[in-house]
Amino acid sequence: MMKKNIVFDFGGVLFRWHPPSFLARVWPHRAADAEQGREIAAQFFENYGGAWGDFDQGLIDAPTVIERIAARTGWPAAEVAQVVAAVPDELQLQTETVALIEELKRAGHRLFYLSNMPEPFADHLQQSHPLHQWFDDGIFSGRVKQSKPRAEIFRLACQRWDVAPESCVFLDDHPVNIEAARALGWQGLLFSDAAQARRELAALG
């Protein structure tokens, strides 16, 4: 495989992030299983728009996102706060993806991350994991006030890392983000698991 700039999403790729099962664990009184959790997640996260989208972009803080979600849904603020507080524990490291990262690094590729992540959770991940050892650099949405799938964050990444769009391979688990990257000239691979990503990266040559 030719040397490339490989860019990783975090939630659902390097760290566990599955809102339906997450909410079923945190709110069993509201979501008895992942199927009910899916319905609750749609209301809570609004497909990462609304208040949570603003939180992702660093436009509002945790108390404000709690207040806005509670006001919109009628759920008690204390329960909404419980979900927000539980997010760091949900973001468990996916060891298979770490193995892939280490393989790619040994092979000489440059590795970056581009993650929609509110600042408090970005701080947690940086303090808990050796991101600086795995990646050359990275961008958290909450720190740059931009988020995927907006074009601005992809352009900012290329500028900051001094890379051409066509040299970047982006791994993300959301089709809309992959489509946005491809529209700007990036190569994009929709991530399902590390084994699939390894095969598709190898197929790029």
Automatic annotation (TrEMBL):
InterPro entries linked to this entry: HAD-like_sf, HAD-SF_hydro_IA, HAD_sf
Pfam family, any one: Hydrolase
Superkingdom of source: Bacteria
PANTHER family, alphabetized: ALPHA-D-GLUCOSE 1-PHOSPHATE PHOSPHATASE (PTHR43611), FLAVIN MONONUCLEOTIDE HYDROLASE 1, CHLOROPLATIC (PTHR43611:SF3)
Protein name: HAD family phosphatase
